[in-house]
Design a protein that fits this description.
Layout (H helix, E strand, L loop, with lengths): L2 E4 L4 H8 L6 E4 L10 H8 L4 E4 L12 H19 L3 E7 L9 H14 L4 E7 L2 E2 L5 H11 L2 E5 L5 E2 L2 E2 H12 L7 E4 L5 E2 H11 L5 E5 L1 H14 L7 H9 L23 H7 L11 H11 L3
Parallel strand pairs: 1-2, 1-3, 3-4, 4-5, 5-10, 6-9, 7-12
Antiparallel strand pairs: 8-11
Helix pairs in contact: 2-3, 3-4, 8-9
Bound molecules: NADP nicotinamide-adenine-dinucleotide phosphate.
NADP nicotinamide-adenine-dinucleotide phosphate binds next to α1, α3 and β4.
């Protein structure tokens, strides 16, 4: 089975690629010279592929890389290139709560992308996944580096929401099962075995990282302000606006409803110390995480 992975340089895509034969895997991303809104480049990349794992996406907009362009135009191009090259199946990694008319461009464009795949006429599986964690992730990485950098950690709202973290190994098992046609439903929810409050998840991560920050509860609007500020100033924001929305509404239940995975494919692993330890990044937040420092360093490298 020859597989093309859009977003194959990203967190989930890299873990998926590691489980496949490199000789039969095509990595699609801007870094490999194939932006997902370029139908001709995608068509060339998909040639000879049986299946496409569509894992490309962004969680914040930068310049012309808007949610609409990457998620909607990009997925339209992926579908068109799949049609042109006779790809048999598309497996799309979407978000658990991607849905229309909810006031979040991230959620709405992921939903629009789902709909393009649903209406493509190509055999497909849409994986509505909750938060995925593991080495090189966003969730454990940011929480760990935050507790190593600041003595205070803000959790959202007076009522804590819950999350069902999915270990990336299990998310990849599901992707592989879907690529092989072993997931019967065209749309399924992918959530972890354990449901816990966000604050409990952060406390566990901090404990494994050997830190004991003071926890404060911040109103949702304050987290939104923090998200806007860190989107403006950080290379990878401490929390993106889309993520602030996820924290505010929880990441446990699919919206709209999507059936569970069949037993045997469904995640069973807990969010425990061993798995958290395996996901811990090195270091803390520093100047290199600021966009201005990076611009300056880039200019120095270029001789400006
Ligand atoms: N991580 C999670 O917990 C989670 C949960 C549910 C759903 N998802 C969804 O799953 C997808 C992958 O998540 P991730 O955590 O692996 O994200 P990630 O680490 O940020 O990786 C995103 C990937 O998309 C590629 N990409 C972005 N814009 C592109 C463009 N215009 N053209 C081609 N490639 C592009 C990136 O490569 P380049 O930068 O080289 O282009 C990268 O390989 C995302 O769509 C996300 O919304 C993630």
């Amino acid at each position: 089975m020859r597989v093309a992975i859009t977003g194959g340089t990203g967190f989930v895509g890299r873990h998926l690629a590691k489980r496949l034969d490199p000789a039969d895997t095509v990595i699609v991303s801007r870094r490999t010279g194939v932006p997902i809104d370029d139908v001709d480049a995608l068509t060339a990349a998909f040639a000879g592929c049986d299946v496409v794992a569509h894992c490309a996406g962004i969680n914040r907009e930068i310049g012309d890389q808007t949610f609409a362009r990457v998620h909607v135009d990009g997925t339209r191009a992926v579908v068109e290139a799949a049609r042109r090259t006779g790809v048999r199946r598309i497996v799309m990694l979407s978000f658990l709560r991607a849905r229309p008319d909810c006031g979040s461009a991230y959620h709405e464009t992921k939903w629009a992308a789902e709909e393009l795949v649903r209406r493509s006429g190509i055999d497909h599986t849409i994986l509505k996944a909750g938060m995925i964690y593991g080495s090189g992730d966003h969730m454990v990485d940011h929480a760990t580096r935050a507790v190593r950098t600041w003595p205070v950690f803000a959790t959202v709202g007076c009522r804590d929401r819950t999350v069902r973290p999915v270990p990336v190994e299990e998310a990849v098992n599901v992707l592989l099962a879907a690529l092989e046609g072993r997931v019967p439903n065209p749309t399924v929810a992918v959530v972890g075995a354990e449901e816990l409050e966000f604050a409990t998840a952060v406390r566990r991560i901090a404990r494994v990282a050997g830190r004991r920050p003071v926890y404060v509860r911040a109103p949702v609007w304050a987290i939104r302000v923090l998200a806007q500020l860190t989107e403006w100033t950080m290379v990878v924001p401490l929390v993106a606006k889309a993520q602030a929305r996820m924290l505010a509404e929880g990441v446990s239940e699919p919206a709209p409803f999507a059936p569970q995975l069949p037993k045997g494919i469904r995640p069973t692993l807990m969010f425990d110390d061993e798995r958290i330890r395996a996901a811990l990044p090195d270091g803390r937040f520093g100047l290199r995480d600021l966009r201005i420092t990076n611009c300056w360093a880039g200019r120095r490298r270029d001789g400006f």
